[in-house]
Amino acid sequence: MSRIEQRFAELREQNRAALIPYVTAGDPEPGATVPLMHALVEAGADLIELGVPFSDPMADGPVIQKACERALRFGTGLRDVLAMVAEFRKRDTTTPVVLMGYLNPVERMGYDTFAETAKAAGLDGLLTVDLPPEESEDVVDLLEQSAIDPIFLIAPTTSEARIDHVARAARGFVYYVSLKGVTGSQSLDVSALAERLERLRRHTGLPLGVGFGIRDAETAAQVARVADAVVVGSAIVRLAEEHDGDGAGYARAAAAVVGEMRRAMDAARSPGAAATV
Amino acid sequence: MDKIDWAAFPDARGHFGPYGGRFVSETLMGALDELQQVYEQYIGDPEFMAELDHDLKQFVGRPNPLYHAERLSQELGGAQIYLKREDLNHTGAHKVNNTIGQALLAKKLGKTRIIAETGAGQHGVATATVAARLGLECVIYMGEEDTRRQSQNVYRMRLLGAEVVGVKSGTRTLKDALNEAMRDWVTNVDDTFYIIGTVAGPHPYPAMVRDFQAVIGREAREQHLAMTGRLPDTLVACVGGGSNAIGLFHPFLADESVEMIGVEAGGDGVETGRHSAPLCAGQPGVLHGNRTYLMEDENGQIIGTHSVSAGLDYPGVGPEHAWLKDIGRVNYVSVTDDQALAGFHRLTRTEGIIPALETSHAIAHVLDLAPRMRPDQSIIINLSGRGDKDLNTVAEREGITL
Ligand SMILES: Cc1ncc(COP(=O)(O)O)c(C=O)c1O
After folding, report:
1. Cα-based distances in Å from B82 to A122, B57, B89, B231, B380
2. Are A47 and A20 in contact (CB under 8 A)?
3. Which parts of chain B register pLDDT below 50?
4. Is the pLDDT of residue A183 over 90?
5. Are the C-beta atoms of A250 and A209 separated by less than 8 Å?
6. Rg from Cα positions in chain B
7. Model confidence over A234-252: pLDDT tens digits?
8. Separation of B239 CA from ligand 1 center, angstroms?
9. What's the gap in Å between B123 CA and the centre of ligand 1?
10. Other Cβ atoms within 10 Å of B328 Cβ, number
11. What does the DSSP 8-state code read for residue A241?
């Protein structure tokens, strides 16, 4: 069983939703990232999405764009990010780590080199926002050989026919983009989301994660009632801007936000709260 | 080279060999499917084509002339030089051929809002123009660096009723404007049509923009045959994203005797690293929805480009060019800023035509090429645009305050 499967199985057993924080690797400086990852886990993260800095983050809003720019001041590249994963694995062998980013850095490294290096580092999944399943066949084969799950997105605009196609290619979990827009947008509609997730469940048995637009503990709790995982990015990454040059301060602030979300999500799933769904 | 069925490219999923394709976030896949469907439906539809032809004739002023630059040909003492006068189109460049076509498709799709990216501002102006004519809301994204270089075009767009958004992220040039337009599209995909200005982006844009620009080559081929009784020997065009070049080249691809040369922006010289010549000095990668040649560092980050001409200042290039380079059908070269400036002045003084700085790159290459050819041979240069927008840039470089 992969680390991702294992983690979702445990959570299902406990009737909890996974909390998945996203942070951009190398933001605000390279040395900050591994301690930050450990701090997030201690605060209640179940899985970590580690952003690979890219010069042209087309699918991201201003918060993550700026995070990429801060990380790129130090030239943090994909090899550095994989080294961070390997470093994290020295102390944490159970928390799954998924890279999230754009295809070009992976393409430049070479898919076979990436798959090998990532496997050795202890990476669990790869989500490239600009790689739809249609273009991914060769990559997916190489990833599978290295036991790395290709994570795919489903959007509000994805047609019923495509959902099947995407779900067939996906491994680990399916990432539902909760709104039309870039990361950090602010108009998540929870009731529409519940209905949408119900429909998705007819197409896939994989856990359903929801991301884009989850800004606070309250929204995280609402989403936790209907989804298997809650992905939170900009709400955490915006703290790095306030703590530029202070990685430890960023880790403390991020852990506080994650801890608050964890408590709100668990309360929302507790037997007493179930009635309010 | 084996015989290639040029009409078979791109394939159904937008691939030109290993290049092209559709590398976008999931949210846009549905909109691209929809666009591909209307484009395929209308591009062969006689009624739509008649509407397009009518607009190109009555609004754009097509066909424009293929002009024999006799004096320049004589001075250079080699091949006969012909200029395909895209600068005479309404709005002053080839860009409008494409915006007219895409705006008609936007109407068919019932979209009420148009967005576009622009570098030199020519595509922005051509988009704002068709939006004004159709009464559609229009937002143009332009890198902040370019709004400064091309301030006249910014004012033109505003006069036409467009909102011009200065993009402050990244290198603040064309690539960042494209990123921002994509972000807008992903947010407003229900009512918004994104008019991409060149043969880049995800499928079907590279094929669709090519088909709208191919009117350049179809006219030029017919005109050259009528004027000389034969095909030209060589075609030369500047390559930014590559739309004016592919527009001229495409209708000649099957004519094996016709040589084609795409001229990229060499900036300070390709050897300095300060240039915009991905085909000459880049390598394949994925950006802005397609696989193509890119300028990138060892980590796959896109690097800043440099060119005196804002319209060529782009780190990628249309995927069809990437493929035409690899199979050897088109030869790609580069020309420096200084050479382009010399081409600008030479054409202005010899023929009384002030070309755009983008176009001046193609002219500069011909200054070098024509003398090596015989007087019974001919070259067609795609005169992609007029130079009015560049007068400030040229004056500034030469220490003149206007
Ligand atoms: C006059 C002119 N020529 C050429 C270009 C370059 O674009 P493309 O390579 O798509 O023709 C531009 C772009 O702004 C332009 O304005």
Report:
1. 62, 22, 17, 12, 5
2. yes
3. none
4. no
5. no
6. 19
7. 999 999 999 999 999 999 9
8. 7
9. 8
10. 8
11. H
Give the whole-angstrom CA distance, residue B136 versus residue B150: 24
Q: Are A197 and A177 in contact (CB under 8 A)?
A: no
Query: pLDDT tens for residues B106-125?
Result: 999 999 999 999 998 999 99
Does the distance separating the beta carbons of A185 and B176 come in below 8 Å?
no
Q: Strand, coil or helix: what is A141?
A: helix
Closest residue, chain B, to A78 (C-alpha): B299
Active site residue A60: yes
Q: CA of B286 to nearest chain A CA: how many angstroms apart? A: 5
- CB neighbours (10 Å) of residue B74? 13
- CA-CA-CA-CA torsion sign (A159, A160, A164, A165): negative
Asked if B113 and B139 touch (Cβ cutoff 8 Å), the reply is: yes
β-strand B19-23 against B15-16: which pairing, if any? antiparallel
Q: Averaged over A259-276, what is the pLDDT?
A: 84
* pTM for this model (two decimals): 0.96
Compute the half-sphere exposure of residue B214: CA atoms within 13 Å on the CB side of its CA: 12
* Alpha helices by DSSP H, B135-204: 144-149, 151-159, 174-187
Asked whether A106 and A133 are in contact (CB, 8 A), the reply is no
> How many Cα atoms within 13 Å fall on the side-chain side of residue A255?
16
CB atoms within 10 A of CB B134: 14
For A172-198, give one letter per residue: b (16+ CB within 10 A) or e. bbbbbbbbbbbbbbeebeeeebeebbe
Look at residue A275 and tell me whether its pLDDT is greater than 60. no
Q: How big is chain A, counted in residues?
A: 277
* Res B2: pLDDT: 67
Laid out side by side, the sheet with B234-238 consists of: B66-68, B80-85, B378-383, B234-238, B259-267, B331-336
> What are the DSSP calls for A32-68, one per residue?
GHHHHHHHHHHHT-SSEEEEPP-S--TTB-HHHHHHH
Residue whose C-alpha is closest to residue B267's, from B278, B258, B283: B278
In this predicted complex, what is the ipTM? 0.94
A154 Cβ under 8 Å from any chain B Cβ: yes
Tell me if B81 sits within 8 A of B73, measured CB to CB. Answer: yes
Question: Pocket of ligand 1, candidates B84, B91, B95, B383: which has the most ligand atoms within 8 Å of its Cβ, to mutate?
Answer: B95
Q: For residues A209-216, give the mean pLDDT.
A: 92
Q: Cα–Cα distance between A136 and A128 in angstroms, integer?
A: 10
How many angstroms separate the CA atoms of B172 and A222, rounded? 39
Contact B110, B134 (CB under 8 A): no
Cross-strand pairs, B382: B84
List beta partners, residue B151.
none
Q: Do B189 and A105 touch (CB under 8 A)?
A: no
CB–CB of B330/B27 below 8 Å? Answer: no
Q: How far apart are CA A261 and CA A239, in angstroms?
A: 15
Residue A242 CA to ligand 1 center (angstroms) comes to 41
Instruction: Classify A153 as helix, strand or coil.
Output: strand
The whole-angstrom separation of Cα B164 and Cα B118 is 10
DSSP string, A175-214: EEE-SSS-BT-----HHHHHHHHHHHHTT--S-EEEESS-
Residues of chain B with C-beta less than 8 angstroms from the C-beta of A82: none
Q: Which chain A residue lies closest to B301 (C-alpha atoms)? A: A55
Tokens of A111: 């898919």
Backbone angles phi, psi at B64, to 5 degrees: -90, 160
Beta strands in B66-202 (DSSP E): 66-68, 80-85, 113-118, 137-143, 163-167, 192-194
Q: What angle do CA B107, B189, B145 make, to 5 degrees?
A: 95
